[in-house]
Write a structure and sequence with these properties.
Layout (H helix, E strand, L loop, with lengths): L22 E6 L11 E10 L5 E4 H4 L3 E4 L5 H6 L8 E6 L19 E10 L1
Antiparallel strand pairs: 1-5, 2-3, 2-4, 2-6, 5-6
């Protein structure tokens, strides 16, 4: 686990209706190695509900980053993290089909548009 020296992000309010496709906003460009589609990434992240702004998950709250192969994560992350460089912070707005699927899909977040702020700490 590495500490980026960053603090837990605040999610910027996105103007307009919930998007129907993935929205990628680079908050801070990284200067390190670039994440690729099949990479395992070490990230700190914050997830909030797009409509309510309510936090539903955060590695910051647990005090440690997570390390995952991108292929095991939601589609929005699989599409939105590649190209990001270590040290960067990126906001992803994931419509339901790129998050946990349509309403009634069995996950508590099914049918929700989700906003994530992700800090890329490492990639391999």
């Amino acid at each position: 686990m590495s500490d980026s020296g960053k603090t837990k992000p605040e999610v910027e309010f996105y103007e307009g209706a919930a998007p129907s496709e993935l929205v990628v906003i680079d908050i801070e460009e990284g200067t390190g190695a670039e994440a690729t589609a099949g990479a395992t990434v070490d990230v700190h992240y914050l997830g909030v509900d797009f409509e309510t702004g309510e936090e539903f998950d955060s590695s910051w709250s647990r005090g440690q980053s997570i390390n995952f192969p991108l292929t095991s994560l939601i589609s929005g992350w699989q599409e939105g993290i590649p190209g990001m460089k270590v040290g960067g912070r990126r906001q992803l707005i994931c419509p339901p089909h790129l998050a946990y699927g349509p309403a009634g899909g069995g996950h508590q977040l099914s049918g929700r548009t989700l906003t994530f702020v992700i800090d890329l700490l490492g990639t391999k």
